Amino acid sequence: MARIFVVGIANLHNLGDFLIYYCTIKILRKYLRNETITFLFPRSNNLYLPKELKELYINERVSFLSFTYDYTLLRKIITAIAVSPKTSRLNKNLVLTTWYIFDQIEKTYDLDIDYSADFVVFGGHTYWVFNPIFTALYNSFRYISEKMIAFPLSVSVFGLNRYGYHELIRQKVLNNMGKFDYIYTRGRFSYKILKSFGINEERLGIALDPAFYIRKVFPHGINKNRSKLRVSVTPRKDMFINKEDYLQYASNLLNSIIRLRREFDIEIYLTSLAFDADYEAIKDIMHNLKLFTDLEFQVVKFTSLKDAFQFYNTIDIMITSRLHDGILGMSASKPVIFIFPHDSKILDVLSMLGPEFKFNWIYPNDPHMSVRLLQSVKYLIDNYKSFKKELENRIEKLIPTTEAIAEKIKEMV
User: What single DSSP character describes residue 106?
Assistant: First the structure.
């Protein structure tokens, strides 16, 4: 019986990141019924935790550990806190403030923890070449694990362009990626980058982002007929280094919403799976909509993946600057327009779906963004049924690739 650690890079108050880990665990448990699965993720003082954690604990027999990381962990083992209702045997100040959701769980988790693992599955992330946190985590988990797999991974074009494609970068990539016994990329773009840096093809595979597997977990149906077009908008601020670039993006997005309102009878919903991180951007759009328009809108905050998925089932078109909001929408068979910079993870995902889906990708600082967005919306409305059918067919065809991780672990066992 193998012991598997699924490692999350991001804090769980970002539902978009949790979506990847949640689906990965669901896939593993479907095919590996008897293995021990432990989910590890960064400790956070934020009291918000997704509701699905409890479901994983009870239904999928998943145990949990949180860990802290800083630069001193480059050559040290991670520190971890076990999740258990028997908090008297742990540090109560740390446990009670973070793990309140488990207070009602009666089953006791064994506190005599063995930090070794047969497999570590690194959950979906984008690899930044000189990010010291990634280096620390790769080294730490390699130290405690027999085998380590990345699933899925994208290689940041921003990171590579920032430092240049020279020998030092090549050695850095080879050193970090060399920690993995196998790497699944989200698409051919990152696959080709890793191959060009000298990663052996025998250690590389391609899989659709596992977040798409959510359509196998939660039901999705056909919308009821409505007179108004329901449009969700997910703005974002943290992808901009320069304030001027963000202001230009926010202005373009506002103009796009105003132009949509002139053309169509729409309902606007502002939301994000990473609501806390995107609240400043949502607040800016709210302020400007109130200041310059009489357009009514609603703000929606999710507390679970199921709530988010059910909400996106009611939406007609999504406009988003968050990849996994878009993936959740596409998993519900909804047309999605991405406003996103030129980077690997968006290239990976859209290239997997097919070249026709790149039509739904607009650069955030495109001076003609509002015109292009309006054109995209008109195209999607005119071709709504055929586009949805093609989207569903492509996702269903690619879903089996998300299950490759379980087959790979079986093979390694």
Answer: -
Instruction: Report CA 208 to chain centroid distance, whole Å.
Output: 12
- Sheet holding 229-234: strands in order across? 297-300, 266-271, 229-234, 317-320, 336-339, 361-362
The amino acid sitting at 190 is: S
- Rounded to 10°, the helix 384-402/369-382 angle is 90
The pair of three-digit structure tokens given for residue 95, joined into one six-digit string:
């446990």
Q: Give CA torsion, residues 71, 77, 79, 84, to 10 deg.
A: 150
pLDDT at 300: 96
Residues 6+ apart with CB under 8 A from 41: 7, 8, 10, 11, 12, 21, 64, 66, 67
Enter the DSSP assignment of 274.
Answer: T
pTM for this prediction:
0.88
Residues 76 and 62: their CA atoms lie apart, in Å, by 25
Tokens of 286: 């709210």
Distance (Å, rounded) from C-alpha 139 to C-alpha 125? 16
Q: What is the pLDDT of residues 152-174, one digit of tens each?
A: 999 988 778 777 777 888 888 89
pLDDT, tens only, 292-307: 888 889 999 998 999 9
Tokens linked to 281: 């951007």
CB atoms within 10 A of CB 202: 7
Beta strands (DSSP E) in 160-296 are 182-185, 204-206, 229-234, 266-271
What are 43's two structure tokens?
């400790």
Angstrom distance (rounded) from CA 373 to CA 377:
6
Transcribe 117-158 into DSSP letters: EEEEEEPSEEE-TT-HHHHHHHHHHHHHEEEEEEEEEEE-HH
Q: Cβ(12)–Cβ(49) under 8 Å?
A: yes
Average pLDDT over residues 315-335: 94
DSSP per-residue string spanning 222-245: PPPP-SSEEEEEE--STT-SSHHH
Rounding to the nearest 10 degrees, give the CA dihedral for residues 40, 43, 47, 50: -20
Tokens read off for 325: 């909001």
Centroid of chain to Cα 42: 15
Identify any residues that bridge with 330 across adjacent strands, giving them in sequence order: none
The span from the CA of 54 to the CA of 58, in Å, is 6
